[in-house]
Q: What sequence folds into this?
C-alpha cells in the first residue's frame, strides 16, 4: 500500500506591515517568547476590559520580562525602533525572522525560544549600505517581571541588579534572569536613569543596556542578545550557561526547528482528500499542542495551560490535553506527565493551599508552587490512567500509581452525599475562603464558592458534569482493579458507575426543555440553567439514544449555539452576560462537548460541521485558538490567545469521533467504527502508535484496509468482521460510510 505523503505546512504568518496585536508565540521546553508582528517582543491584549502588554520572555514557568524592545542610535541621536523600520516579518513555530530598513541601516533579526534552555535569543545581522563606516548604538530595553504566572498581575516590588561580564543579572524573591550580549555593554540605565554598575536594590520598571559598535561599509556584523532564567537556584547553578548560549547563536533556530521536526515525524499522518480543511486543521492543532510542552526541571513534565497568562501546569487543562498527546503517539510524555501530577497529590490536608487528602492539585509550577481546591480535577485522572493503559499496555506504570488512584477514589468518596448518592461540589471554594480568613492579605483569584470548570459562577451542590466525571472515574477504577491488585473491588466499582449513570438519567432529566438540569441544590431542587456541560453526559454515552438526540438538538438552538461555538450559558437566561467569563462567553471546550455528543448521538453531519468550524477558526487564527470569545460576536474578550483545551479536544475527536477508534490493551484489540460523511470516499491514517506497534488505516469506500506492525498479533473489530493481524499483515472489512440521513 502506497504511503500518503504529508503536505507541507506553510509559514503560519507572513506579515508585511506592522500588526502589533497579532499574537506570535515561540516556545521551547522551558522557555517562551510572546510578541506581536512588530519585530519587538510586545503584544498589547485586552485583559479584563483594559489593554495590557503581555509581550516578553518566559522561563521555567516564570514571566522573566514584560515587553523587550530594541532601538538603534548614532552620535546624532536615536534613529528609530525596530517596529518603525520593519518591512517584513515571517513567523514560524520555532522562530521569527524580520527584516528592517532605513537609509543608513539594514537589519535582519532572528528571534528564537531556545529549544531546551529557559531563554530567548535575538540575533541581529546588521549591514551598513552607505559608502563609509558608521557608529551604531544598540539599545536593548525590557521590563523585569520575575513572577510565576500562576497568579495574574503580581510582580515584585523590589529587585536586585548586579553587573556581569556580558550584561547584568536581576533577582527577586527566588527568581532571576540574566541579560547578555555578544558585544561589549558600554552603558546601562535603570528606570531610565544612568547606572554605574554597582549593586542596586529597589523598585525597577525598566532596564536598558547600551552597546556601541563600528559598522563597516558592506560586510555584515552579527550581534546576539539573550535573556534567560527562571528559578534563582537554577541561574546560580549554571553560571556557564550564558557563554554557551551566546556561543551557539548561529544554530539557535536550526536546533529548535530540528527538535520540532523530529517530534512531528513521530506523530500520525492524516490524509482526508474530501476534507482538506480538516487535514490542515490537524496539522495546525498538532503543532499548537506541541508549543505547550513543558519540562522546566527533572521530574516536572506536562503541558502548560496556555499563553500569555496561564504559562503553568493546570492539572484540569492537562487532563483535557493528555488524550490528544496519547493519540499523537507520545506515550512517554504522557507517562511523565501523569507522574508529575501525582507527585503533587495531597497526602495530607493542606488547608492554606485548599488541599484535602487525595486531591490532585489545580496548578503546579517549578519551585515548587502548587494550589488545590477544584471540584473536578481529581476526577479526571483515573480515566486518564485507563486511557494510558489501553493505548500502551504498560501495566507497570499503572501499578506504580496504585496508591495515588486509591487516594483519589477516597477523596471523591468523602465528597459523596450519602443521602443523594451524588458527589458534592462547592465546599472547595468555601474552604479556601475560610483558610485565608486569618491571613488578610491572601486572595484566591475569583470571588467564587464553586471551583468546577466554570469556576467564577456558582453551580453548587451537584453539578451535572461532576457526576459524569465521577461515574467515568468509577468505571475506570473498575477496569484498572485487576492490574492494581484490587480485582475483588472491580465489580463493586462497575456497579456503582452503572448506578450513578442511571441516577443521572432519572434525576437530571428536564422534560420541559428536553435537556439536563445544570445542577441539583443540596435539598434536591433542580438548577434550571441551560449550559453546554450537559452535553458531556451525552458524549460519555450515559443517556439513551432518544434523550441523547433531544439534548443535542436542544443545545443547537441559537440561545446556546452560535456560529463560532457554544455559550457557557443560554442567552435567554436572566443572568446571561456576553462578556461574562462563565455566564455567557463562548468557549471552544464547549464545542468539544457538542461535537462529541453529536457523534455519540449518531448525528454525523452536525458533528463534522463542528469539526469544520473548529478547523476554520484554527486557520483564521494562524494556528492558535483563543480561550474564549464574546457571546454576542466572534471576538476574544479577556482571553488567552492560545489555550490547550481549546486545541487538544479537536485532535482527540478526529481520532475517537471521526475515525471511531477505541483501543483496548487487555485483549490487544482496536475497534474501528468511523463516522465519515456520506459524501466522502477516502480517508487515510498512518503511523498510529498503539501497544508499542504501529497501525495503518486506509479507507477507500467501501473498503477499510488495516495494517499492523508489532510484537504481538492485533485484533481489529470493524463492520461485521474481526481481523487478527500478525506483524506485517494487512486485512480488510467493509465500511460503506455514514448514511445520508445523519
A:
Amino acid at each position: 500500500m502506497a504511503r500518503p505523503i504529508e503536505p507541507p505546512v506553510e509559514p503560519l504568518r507572513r506579515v508585511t506591515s506592522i500588526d502589533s496585536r497579532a499574537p506570535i508565540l515561540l516556545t521551547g521546553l522551558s522557555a517562551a517568547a510572546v510578541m506581536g508582528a512588530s519585530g519587538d517582543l510586545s503584544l498589547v491584549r485586552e485583559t479584563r476590559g483594559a489593554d495590557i502588554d503581555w509581550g516578553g520572555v518566559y522561563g521555567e514557568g516564570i514571566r522573566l520580562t514584560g515587553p523587550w524592545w530594541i532601538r538603534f542610535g548614532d552620535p546624532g541621536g536615536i534613529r528609530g525602533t525596530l517596529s518603525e523600520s520593519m518591512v517584513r516579518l515571517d513567523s514560524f513555530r520555532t522562530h521569527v525572522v524580520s527584516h528592517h530598513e532605513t537609509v543608513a541601516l539594514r537589519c535582519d533579526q532572528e528571534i528564537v525560544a531556545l529549544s531546551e534552555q529557559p531563554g530567548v535569543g535575538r540575533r541581529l545581522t546588521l549591514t551598513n549600505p552607505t559608502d563609509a563606516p558608521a557608529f551604531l548604538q544598540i539599545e536593548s530595553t525590557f521590563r523585569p517581571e520575575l513572577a510565576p504566572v500562576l497568579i495574574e498581575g503580581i510582580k515584585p516590588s523590589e529587585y536586585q541588579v548586579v553587573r556581569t561580564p556580558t550584561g547584568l543579572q536581576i533577582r527577586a524573591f527566588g527568581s532571576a534572569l540574566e541579560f547578555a550580549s555578544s558585544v561589549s555593554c558600554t552603558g546601562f540605565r535603570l528606570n531610565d536613569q544612568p547606572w554605574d554598575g554597582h549593586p542596586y536594590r529597589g523598585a525597577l520598571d525598566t532596564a536598558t543596556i547600551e552597546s556601541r559598535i563600528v559598522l563597516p561599509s558592506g560586510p555584515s556584523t552579527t550581534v546576539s542578545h539573550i535573556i534567560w532564567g527562571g528559578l534563582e537556584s537554577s541561574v546560580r547553578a549554571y553560571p556557564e550557561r550564558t557563554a554557551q548560549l551566546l556561543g551557539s547563536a548561529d544554530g539557535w533556530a536550526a536546533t529548535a526547528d530540528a527538535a520540532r521536526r523530529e517530534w512531528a515525524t513521530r506523530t500520525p499522518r492524516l490524509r482526508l482528500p474530501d476534507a482538506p480543511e480538516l487535514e490542515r486543521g490537524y496539522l495546525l492543532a498538532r503543532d499548537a499542542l506541541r508549543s505547550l510542552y513543558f519540562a522546566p526541571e527533572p521530574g516536572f513534565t506536562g503541558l502548560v495551560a496556555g499563553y500569555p497568562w496561564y504559562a503553568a501546569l493546570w492539572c484540569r487543562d492537562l487532563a483535557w490535553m493528555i488524550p490528544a498527546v496519547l493519540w499523537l503517539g507520545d506515550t512517554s510524555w504522557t507517562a511523565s506527565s501523569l507522574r508529575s501530577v501525582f507527585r503533587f497529590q495531597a497526602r495530607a490536608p493542606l488547608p492554606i493551599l485548599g488541599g484535602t487528602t487525595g486531591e490532585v492539585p489545580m496548578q503546579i509550577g517549578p519551585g515548587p508552587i502548587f494550589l488545590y481546591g477544584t471540584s473536578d480535577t481529581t476526577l479526571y485522572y483515573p480515566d486518564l490512567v485507563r486511557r494510558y493503559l489501553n493505548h500502551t499496555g504498560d501495566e507497570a506504570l499503572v501499578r506504580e500509581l496504585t496508591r495515588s488512584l486509591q487516594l483519589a477514589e477516597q477523596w471523591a468518596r468523602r465528597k459523596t452525599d450519602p443521602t443523594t448518592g451524588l458527589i458534592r461540589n462547592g465546599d472547595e471554594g468555601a474552604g479556601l475562603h475560610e483558610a485565608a480568613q486569618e491571613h488578610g492579605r491572601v486572595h484566591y483569584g475569583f470571588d467564587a464558592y464553586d471551583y468546577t470548570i466554570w469556576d467564577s459562577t456558582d453551580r453548587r451542590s451537584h453539578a451535572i458534569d461532576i457526576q459524569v466525571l465521577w461515574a467515568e472515574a468509577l468505571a475506570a477504577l473498575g477496569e484498572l482493579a485487576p492490574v492494581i491488585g484490587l480485582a475483588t473491588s472491580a465489580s463493586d466499582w462497575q456497579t456503582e458507575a452503572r448506578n450513578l449513570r442511571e441516577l443521572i438519567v432519572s434525576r437530571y432529566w428536564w422534560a420541559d426543555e428536553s435537556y439536563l438540569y445544570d445542577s441539583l441544590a443540596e435539598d434536591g431542587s433542580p438548577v434550571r440553567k441551560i449550559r453546554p456541560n450537559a452535553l458531556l453526559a451525552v458524549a460519555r454515552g450515559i443517556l439513551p439514544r432518544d434523550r441523547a438526540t433531544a439534548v443535542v438538538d436542544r443545545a443547537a438552538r441559537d440561545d446556546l449555539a452560535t456560529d463560532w461555538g457554544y455559550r457557557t450559558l443560554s442567552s435567554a437566561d436572566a443572568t446571561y452576560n456576553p462578556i461574562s467569563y462563565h455566564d455567557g462567553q463562548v468557549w471552544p471546550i464547549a464545542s468539544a462537548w457538542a461535537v462529541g455528543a453529536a457523534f455519540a448521538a449518531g448525528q454525523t453531519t452536525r458533528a463534522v460541521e463542528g469539526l469544520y468550524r473548529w478547523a476554520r477558526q484554527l486557520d483564521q487564527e494562524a494556528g492558535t485558538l483563543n480561550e474564549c470569545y464574546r457571546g454576542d460576536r466572534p471576538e476574544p474578550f479577556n482571553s488567552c490567545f492560545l489555550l490547550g483545551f481549546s486545541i487538544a479536544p479537536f485532535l482527540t475527536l478526529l481520532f475517537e469521533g471521526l475515525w471511531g477508534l477505541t483501543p483496548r490493551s487487555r485483549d490487544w484489540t482496536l475497534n474501528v467504527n468511523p463516522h465519515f460523511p456520506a459524501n466522502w470516499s477516502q480517508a487515510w491514517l498512518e503511523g498510529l502508535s498503539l501497544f508499542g506497534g504501529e497501525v495503518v488505516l486506509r479507507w477507500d469506500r467501501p473498503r477499510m484496509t488495516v495494517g499492523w506492525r508489532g510484537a504481538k498479533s492485533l485484533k481489529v473489530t470493524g463492520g461485521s468482521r474481526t481481523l487478527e493481524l500478525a506483524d506485517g499483515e494487512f486485512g480488510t472489512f467493509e465500511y460503506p460510510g455514514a448514511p445520508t440521513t445523519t
Observations:
- Residues 440-446 have pLDDT under 50 and may be disordered.
- The two ends are 31 Å apart (CA to CA).
- Residues 188 and 259 are 36 Å apart (CA to CA).
